[in-house]
Amino acid sequence: MNNLNYNFKNPKLLELALTQSGADAENNNERLEFLGDRVLGLSIAMLLYEMFPNEHEGALAQRHAVLVSSGTLSEVASELGLVGKIRHGHMTAGRLKHVMADAVESILGAIFLDGGFDAARETVFKIWTPLAKKDLTPPKDAKTALQELVQQSGIGMLPEYEFLEHSGPSHSPVFNVRVSALGKQAIGNGTSKKTATAAAAAELLRILKDN
Fold first, then answer.
1. Residue 166, SS3 per DSSP
2. Measured distance CA(10)–CA(209) in Å, rounded
3. Distance (Å, whole) CA 99 – CA 85
4. How many CB atoms neighbour CB 106 within 10 A?
5. Is 37 assigned a catalytic role?
6. Are 3 and 81 in contact (CB under 8 A)?
7. Which of 30, 55, 75, 105 is catalytic?
8. Do residues 157 and 181 make contact, with C-beta atoms less than 8 angstroms apart?
């Protein structure tokens, strides 16, 4: 696989990571995705802690939200050449980005099981370091930046945030937040409503800037 730089001792783990539930309801990548999400989150936190020794927690959190967002994950999926390699059922074009993002997390979960955390972290560092270096300016709070962007546009209402149903086990829930502004929407998730809101704002900022 392009740019992954990891050889699986158990290739079936990679095959499972690339199988979406729409293709196989029993043997799919949902559990690997759950695991890989945690592996990615900790690895990115370690990467940012090392790269930006003088930044405070808030700035690091904003960088983290962007780097683990579905937009960044789908970008990574394209760089890895995952398009066409993921087994999935029928879906809309808009759903493809999320399936690709989920597959990236699933692959990281598979690497963790196959080679341990150090191998997974090394993979994350290789792929995400260039992404983290794209903008070395300490980021503005995503919610504030989004609100300022909307206000500068002079059109539309201020961003509206909606808390969706959370997922995951009761002892470790994952919160989901949808934000709407300027005719666009984005969903973010995190281990708290605060981090999920920040992730949603960061993702919508990326979408609006791309457009």
1. strand
2. 41
3. 11
4. 28
5. yes
6. yes
7. 105
8. yes
